[in-house]
């Protein structure tokens, strides 16, 4: 178990005691420095000295994305001269929010990514090809770079897109691990096949997958994961993270969910009424950040629905693991009496030949219910393509959305508007 933080191998009661000590330190800190939490505690008659256990956290109201948007500056706990880096969220489901990081926060971010990449079987002997941006106020690219640097591994900062440049870099520098959005790996495969590149025998042996799911609920590869690994014998590692918690949940080699780092966040899984779900049931991941100086959060609702797995892992860690994200609470669709999350649609689209790219658009119809229109990028279609695709949707989901075809180039422009940091595959035009 070399390289695994000691706390991540301890019994559950010891991890809980460790977190409760860190929680008391956090509450004292925000009581002194956070205008938002000072106001929240006062409005709800909360004496932070009485919050001593993780169970006691339930007495504190949750923090939402709307709170971050409305009271953004009130969350900042430090003077401007202590701020080293300014970051914004991606704004996938609304307006972006600014986060600030101190020197201490950058150290925490570095630690998080170092142990996360080590969890994904990385070491100082590897060379990482970073296929994501480090600019545009993006936290992830910088986190990867800092973590790799502290690990002592090599890093090649290529950025996103540019398949030709990616392959030229792989040929020249022989990186062993890629960090990339998994759908981009499909584009790399297609480019290699069109240009006679022997990608199956390239130096890349592992891929840390960001931004899109590669596994089903049972941890088997989903359609996207299978499309990559059926063509290219690489090992995929799923990772889940967000700017708000500045923490990643990354798979180990067992591929059984993203490991929790208890020294960085406290986890809760809540239902629609903000009550804890029963063990093994899906709930909204809600986090309390530990060790954050600039903008700590208490009981922040991520909007992501998942399941906690607590059985022992073969890697030696005793920490809980996150299931694949089942969906985002804000993205839940009620379509013709069926509840859907976009990943269920994505899995079918990724499995369908001829489809190069797509965008799922949801809007409110004239009777105030949800409608789905899928914009599909295709270069050619066989006879009865639309009918067969709709039949496939009905077979898998019991309902079939509307479909509109366009050129892959037109869809790509909509997926990557100016200043976008990752592909947009979901557009929500519903009346709120």
Task: Explain what you see.
The protein has a nine-stranded mixed sheet, sandwiched between helices. It has a four-stranded antiparallel sheet with strand order 10-11-12-15, covered by helices on one side. The protein has a four-stranded mixed sheet with strand order 20-19-18-21, sandwiched between helices. Helix 5 links the parallel strand 3 (127-130) and strand 4. The chain is 30% helix and 24% strand. It has helices at residues 12-33, 35-43, 65-70, 103-119, 139-151, 163-173, 182-194, 223-231, 342-351, 385-397, 408-415; strands spanning 83-88, 98-102, 127-130, 154-157, 177-180, 206-209, 235-242, 247-251, 258-259, 265-270, 283-289, 300-306, 308-309, 321-322, 327-328, 333-335, 338-340, 355-364, 370-378, 402-406, 426-429. The model has no long low-confidence stretch (mean pLDDT 91). Helix 1 (12-33) packs across helix 2 (35-43) and helix 4 crosses helix 5 (139-151). It has eleven helices and 21 strands. It starts with 11 loop residues before the first helix and ends with a strand. The protein has 432 residues and is α/β, with parallel strands linked by helices. It folds into two domains: 1-327, Rossmann fold (3-Layer(aba) Sandwich); 332-429, GMP Synthetase, Chain A, domain 3.
């Amino acid at each position: 178990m070399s390289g695994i933080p000691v706390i991540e191998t301890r019994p559950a009661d010891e991890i809980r005691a460790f977190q409760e000590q860190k929680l008391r330190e956090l509450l004292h800190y925000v009581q002194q420095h956070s205008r938002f939490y000072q106001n929240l505690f006062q409005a709800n008659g909360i004496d932070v000295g009485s919050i001593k256990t993780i169970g006691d956290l339930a007495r504190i109201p949750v923090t939402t994305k709307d709170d971050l948007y409305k009271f953004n500056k009130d969350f900042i706990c430090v003077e401007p001269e202590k701020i080293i880096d300014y970051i914004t969220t991606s704004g996938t489901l609304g307006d972006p929010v600014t986060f600030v990081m101190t020197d201490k926060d950058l150290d925490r971010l570095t630690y998080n990514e170092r142990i996360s990449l080590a969890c994904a079987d990385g070491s100082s002997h590897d060379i990482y090809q970073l296929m994501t941006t480090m600019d545009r106020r993006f936290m992830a690219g910088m986190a990867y770079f800092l973590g790799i640097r502290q690990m002592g591994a090599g890093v090649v900062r290529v950025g996103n897109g540019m398949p030709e440049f990616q392959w030229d870099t792989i040929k020249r520098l022989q990186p062993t691990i890629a960090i990339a959005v998994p759908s981009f790996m499909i584009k790399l495969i297609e480019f290699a096949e069109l240009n006679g590149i022997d990608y199956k025998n390239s130096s890349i042996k592992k891929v840390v997958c960001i931004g899109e799911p590669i596994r089903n609920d049972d941890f088997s590869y989903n359609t996207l994961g299978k499309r990559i690994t059926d063509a290219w014998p690489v090992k995929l590692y799923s990772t889940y993270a967000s700017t708000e918690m500045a923490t990643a949940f990354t798979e180990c080699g067992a591929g059984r969910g993203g490991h929790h780092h208890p020294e960085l966040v406290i986890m809760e899984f809540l239902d629609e009424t903000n009550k804890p779900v029963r063990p093994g049931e899906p709930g909204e991941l809600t986090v309390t950040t530990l060790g954050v100086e600039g903008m700590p959060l208490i009981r922040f609702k991520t909007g992501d629905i998942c399941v906690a797995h607590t059985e022992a892992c073969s890697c030696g860690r005793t920490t809980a693991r996150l299931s694949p994200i089942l969906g985002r609470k804000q993205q839940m669709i009620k379509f013709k009496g069926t509840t859907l999350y976009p990943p269920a649609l994505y899995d079918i689209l990724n499995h369908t030949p001829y489809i190069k790219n797509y965008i799922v658009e949801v809007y409110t119809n004239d009777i105030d219910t949800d409608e789905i229109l899928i914009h599909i990028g295709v270069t050619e279609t066989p006879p009865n393509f639309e009918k067969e695709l709709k039949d496939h949707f009905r077979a898998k989901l019991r309902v079939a959305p509307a479909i509109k075809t366009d050129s892959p180039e037109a869809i790509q422009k909509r997926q990557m508007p100016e200043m976008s940091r990752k592909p947009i595959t979901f557009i929500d035009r519903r009346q709120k």
